[in-house]
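Most newcomers find our protein records easier to grasp once they have seen one. A learned vocabulary of local backbone shapes supplies the integers on the structure line. Here is such a record, shown just as it appears in the course material:
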Amino acid sequence: MENCIFCKIANKEIPSNFVYEDEYTVAFNDLSPQAPTHILVIPKKHFSSLNEVDDENIMSALFKAVQNVTKKLGIKEYRTVINTGEAAGQTVFHIHIHILAGRPLKWPPG
């Protein structure tokens, strides 16, 4: 997608310090962290939201990346969030998983 900021990050058109990268995904620190640790995991291929992902390999790769990131960083307790749609809080329309950790997280969120 031409104007997608996450596509530009995944394609290395915008410099970013990846905390993780594999064939299908990249992970990087959120620029507006909501917790001491706030990492975004995105697929390299563009999907606007969870509703558009039609490839189970991508979903598997995303969740495996979450496991690899948390293991690499020694994070044992964390929250994962996927916002789907504007009313749910999605602001960048490229599917991404938030990894939030480093402080107690309250329930219900938001």
Q: What stands out?
A: The domain at 5-101 is CATH 3.30.428.10 (HIT family, subunit A). The two ends are 29 Å apart (CA to CA).
